[in-house]
Amino acid sequence: MDKKAVCSDLLDIVAKEDQIKIDEPLSAYTFTHTGGKADFFVTPRTYEEVGAIVAYSRQNELPLTILGRGSNLIVRDGGIRGIVIHCGCLDQIRCEGNRIIAQSGASIIDVSYFALKHGLTGLEFACGIPGSVGGALYMNAGAYGGETADVLCSAVVVNTEGTIIKLSEDDLNMGYRRSAISQKGYLALEGTFALKKGDCREIKSEMERLTKLRELKQPLEYPSCGSVFKRPPGYFAGKLIQDSGLQGTRVGGVEVSTKHAGFMVNVDHGTASDYLKLIRRVQETVKKKFNVDLETEVKIIGEEPK
After folding, report:
1. 107 is catalytic
2. How far apart are CA 267 and CA 269, in angstroms?
């Protein structure tokens, strides 16, 4: 791969030179504070730029990775080859009646507070989810009995060929921690949330209640990738891990949280490799003790270090 040639081509797509970075460390963009370098780190500012970058990567057979806020993500220490698109500049939120339209780079927490500001109920569950709108659409993010599918009525995405298309509620095919966006390899650009008029005081009270629950139960004082494992049918991952005596288990600088066993926290300059080794240890121990397979909820991408 000729990095100078690729960089030159990308400069023909985006508006400004500072939208492209070469060999950018991704540890600055993940909640775990881990991850290797991206060959090309691009921050598009329009939907058309996103579509053009996707089309370019396909035409030139360059790997393409989408990076949101990096909250439920582990990037391996070897980094990511090809192009990484970061949609942080696409963060606009607007209200049209009882609907909120939010771009993929916006924080889903910010969207929930935007709904509060406009007296709209339905997104209270999202007030503590630390990811982006794009991530919420991609994996049907949820918490405290609510999930994105409950309120999402349509989305604008870029398909694998770089074409911008709109998906209806039926097209989205959302299920537990999945959607048509993740299944078909689309890139989310925006989501439209259908909400209801509510009482601002009641909405705020519920959000404060959920925030206190989160602060009480989750290890927010350390970097982490959020909930590591999906909920196994008939079980709770955190309870299985706790009952396996794994809380406090450490590999390198990463340990199973003593506050919530479903979380792994970076307590001392841990690496992505530390995370992956600890994940495997937990999976093996729970399988041996309870014969339950723990499937990761956190997305793991990138290459192992050479």
Report:
1. no
2. 7
CATH number at residue 24: 3.30.43.10
Q: What distance in Å separates the CA atoms of residue 149 and residue 169, rounded to the nearest whole number?
A: 9
Q: Give the range of the structural domain holding residue 132, as residue numbers without chain letter.
A: 93-202
What's the number of domains the chain is made of?
A: 3
Query: What is the β-pairing status of strands 152-158 and 164-168?
Result: antiparallel
Contacts of 59 (CB under 8 A, 6+ apart): none
Active site residue 273: no
Q: Per the residue annotation, which of 177, 190, 244, 273 is the catalytic one?
A: 177
CATH, residue 131: 3.30.465.10
pLDDT tens readout for residues 34-92: 999 999 999 999 999 999 999 999 999 999 999 989 999 999 999 999 999 999 999 99
Question: Known catalytic residue: 177?
Answer: yes
Q: How far is CA 213 from each of CA 206, 208, 216, rounded to the nearest angstrom? A: 11, 9, 5
SS3 percent helix, strand, coil of the chain, rounded to 5, is 35, 30, 35
pLDDT digits (tens, 9 = 90+) for 219-269: 999 999 999 999 999 999 999 999 999 999 999 999 999 999 999 999 999
Give the pLDDT of residue 2: 87
Statement: the pTM of the whole predicted model exceeds 0.85: yes
User: Are 79 and 13 within one domain?
Assistant: yes
**102 & 69 share domain:** no
